[in-house]
Specification:
single chain, 94 residues, alpha+beta, binds zinc ion
């Protein structure tokens, strides 16, 4: 997914949000990890020190990771910006 695609998703989600339309049920599995285990979890997934956010493509590290998302057998990460977390719920509806 490239940047223009994710801004489309962002606009779509914001639109839905602003109109207050019923939100579809999230279909993305989010693995919550206790903060003190994040580093261990990150290492156990053999992720590089920095990986682009699945939503906004900004670099994500152990310090600002908010979610780990399994996508096609790979692990994608999401940064801690609230909009990215919010948008994650819509990414798989495309
Ligand atoms: Zn992000």
């Amino acid at each position: 997914m490239d940047n223009s695609r994710s801004s489309e998703t962002l606009a779509y989600s914001l639109n839905l949000f602003l109109k207050g339309e019923h939100m579809p049920k999230p279909t993305v599995t989010i693995h919550a990890v206790h903060e003190r285990n994040i580093e261990k979890y990150w290492d156990s997934l053999k992720l590089p020190d920095s990986q682009p956010c699945y939503v906004c493509k900004e670099p994500v590290t152990k310090k600002n990771v908010a979610a780990f998302v399994p996508v096609d057998g790979k692990v994608e990460v999401v940064c801690d910006k609230p909009l990215c977390f919010f948008n994650l719920h819509y990414m798989k509806h495309k």
